[in-house]
Write a structure and sequence with these properties.
73% helix; mainly alpha; 70 residues; globular
């Protein structure tokens, strides 16, 4: 995104990628899941980012989403 559109859009995308990981874990916890299962929700978010069915099971590297999961 940085090379294609510049710093502003890249920052927005990075924030949303981080929030994707955070929200996956928080949603798991809000549903009453124990910590290991909430962590699996985070892993699912990273895998969904890396292998998106909307992009032919190709996608990003998942670094920002993994940061959000942590």
């Amino acid at each position: 995104m940085l090379r294609s559109l510049g710093k502003g859009p890249a920052l927005v995308v990075a924030i949303f990628d981080i929030l994707k990981g955070v929200l996956a874990v928080l949603l798991g916890r809000a549903l009453g899941l124990d910590a290991p299962y909430a962590a699996l929700c985070g892993v699912a978010a990273v895998l969904g980012h890396n292998f998106s069915p909307f992009l032919g099971f190709r996608g990003g590297k998942g670094v920002a989403t993994s940061f959000g999961v942590l």
